[in-house]
């Protein structure tokens, strides 16, 4: 069946937030949707408003790179939405300027449908603003909204985006594609897209600073604060196709940095074979999503070093053993000690651990202890502020205790906004104290 008559425009929306940094952000789900559509003969185009290497930024000399292909997004300060108007933080629109976006959209008068993705629940406002602009240019075209926010909060999305006449697609992969094509009364055969296709990086014109790939989706662990296992069944990809796929991507986009966005990288049953195979590429690898410290042994550490892994984040979350058990028992202090020793012994000095702050009931001292514990082991921790994610067990628990209202606007759940109003966590001063403590420790260490 030839579907090539249809043309879809994929859009990665703006981020509206008080802070945002490009830690290898790529619209992976959207690039996979593009890949599936192209594979079935549809024409696909992309406007990624968050691409720091967009030709607009290159021409205007606005690229601010830091390390390993990460960097600062271009932004403009914008008015705060009403619900957070009293929060004493500036609100910004990150990404391509509005005029430039409008100019680009006008090149796509012929498209049959526009697909917009979403990530964080508390970023829905930026998605809304993006679609508002699309509607100015294309009042009648079908617009489809999918992605993580929609999958976590389908009712909120349907209600909120109704006024813009948006079709909300709840589901991932083939399920999402089927809903999209049902609208056009078209059928396609389902394929095992994760095993057989790559994210469609060829949609980017010119060079990009890094690529993000994944060797598995989902996660078999069920941590109480995490939504991953509730969205995806755990699936892994064969080593053969991971390697073949990476070869293909690197031929099209010869980048220096390859980032794995797995939530459970070390659960892959053939992880040693995978690491061995990855070492043949001349790139730097990164694991920013936190790997399971329990699963790091001497051999894995050696293979990480051999394959040229740089940024390796260990999920540590909290040094409080009671809390470790309560939140899912993924890691204990001993696990961390052992994992760090193996990794540092192999010279993997950019190993780091995530510590959660502002968990319900958590004390400042617990976080400080966790920071000290990491420094004593010879690694620099990253402090992550807790965000209650709708529909996770932890979120439901907070609602049943009356610590959160079920209809709280997701904008208020943003981790940088939460401390200003939520009375069951730390306040903004306490969080600032923790951050200052971490900064001082880093300075002592010369980081």
Rg (C-alpha, Å): 22 Å
- Tally of helical runs: 17
> What's the rounded overall pLDDT mean?
91
Shape: globular
Contiguous runs where pLDDT drops below 50 for at least 5 residues: none
Q: Main sheet?
A: 6 strands, parallel
Number of E-type strands? 18
Helix content: 25-40%
Q: What structural class should be given to the helix and strand makeup?
A: alpha/beta
Beta-strand residue fraction: 15-25%
- Strand arrangement, major sheet: 11-14-15-16-17-18
How far apart, in Å, are the first and last alpha carbons?
58 Å
Domain Radical SAM core: 205-424
Protein name: Radical SAM protein
Domain B12-binding: 12-191
Cofactor: [4Fe-4S] cluster
Describe the structure.
This protein has 17 helices and 18 strands. The chain is an alpha/beta fold. The strands form five sheets. The chain has a six-stranded parallel β-sheet. It has a five-stranded parallel β-sheet with strand order 3-1-8-9-10, with helices on both faces. Strand 4 and strand 5 form a beta hairpin. Helix 1 (28-39) crosses helix 7, helix 11 packs parallel to helix 12 and helix 12 crosses helix 14 (333-345). The longest helix is centred in the C-terminal third of the chain and has 18 residues, at 428-445.
């Amino acid at each position: 069946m030839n579907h090539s008559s249809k043309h879809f425009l994929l859009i990665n929306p703006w981020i509206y937030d008080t802070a945002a940094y490009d830690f290898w952000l790529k619209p992976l789900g959207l690039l996979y949707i593009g890949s599936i559509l192209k594979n079935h003969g549809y024409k696909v185009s992309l406007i990624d408003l968050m691409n720091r290497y967009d030709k607009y930024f290159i021409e205007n000399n606005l690229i601010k790179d830091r390390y390993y292909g990460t960097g600062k997004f271009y932004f403009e300060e914008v008015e705060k939405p009403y619900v957070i108007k009293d929060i004493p933080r500036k609100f910004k629109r990150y990404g391509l300027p509005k005029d430039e976006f409008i100019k680009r959209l006008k090149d796509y008068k012929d498209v049959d449908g526009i697909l917009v993705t979403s990530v964080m629940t508390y970023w829905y406002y930026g998605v809304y603003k993006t679609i508002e602009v699309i509607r100015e240019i294309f009042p009648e075209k079908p617009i489809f909204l999918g992605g993580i926010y929609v999958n976590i909060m389908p009712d909120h999305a349907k209600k909120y985006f109704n006024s813009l006449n948006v079709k909300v697609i709840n589901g991932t992969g083939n399920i999402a594609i089927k809903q999209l094509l049902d609208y056009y009364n078209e059928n396609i055969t389902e394929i095992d897209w994760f095993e057989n296709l790559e994210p469609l990086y060829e949609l980017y014109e010119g060079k990009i600073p890094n690529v993000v790939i994944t060797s598995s989706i989902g996660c078999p662990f069920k941590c109480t604060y995490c939504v991953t296992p509730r969205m995806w069944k755990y699936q892994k990809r064969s080593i053969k196709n991971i390697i073949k796929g990476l070869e293909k991507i690197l031929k099209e986009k010869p980048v220096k940095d390859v980032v794995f966005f797995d939530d459970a990288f070390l659960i892959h049953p053939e992880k040693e074979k995978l690491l061995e195979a990855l070492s043949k590429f001349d790139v730097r690898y990164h694991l920013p999503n936190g790997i399971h410290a329990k699963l790091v042994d001497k051999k894995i550490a050696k293979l990480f070093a051999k394959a040229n892994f740089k940024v390796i984040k260990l999920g540590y979350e909290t040094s409080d053993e009671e809390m470790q058990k309560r939140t899912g028992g993924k890691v204990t202090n001993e696990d961390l000690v052992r994992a760090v020793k193996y990794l540092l012994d192999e010279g993997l000095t950019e190993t780091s651990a995530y510590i959660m702050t502002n968990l319900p009931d958590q004390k400042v001292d617990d976080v400080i202890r966790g920071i000290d514990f990491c420094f004593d082991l010879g690694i620099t921790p990253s402090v992550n502020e807790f965000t209650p994610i709708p529909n996770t067990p932890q979120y439901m628990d907070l609602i049943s205790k009356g610590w959160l209202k079920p209809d709280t606007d997701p904008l208020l759940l943003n981790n940088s906004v939460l401390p200003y109003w939520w009375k069951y966590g730390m306040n903004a001063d306490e969080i600032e104290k923790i951050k200052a403590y971490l900064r001082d420790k880093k300075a002592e260490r010369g980081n």
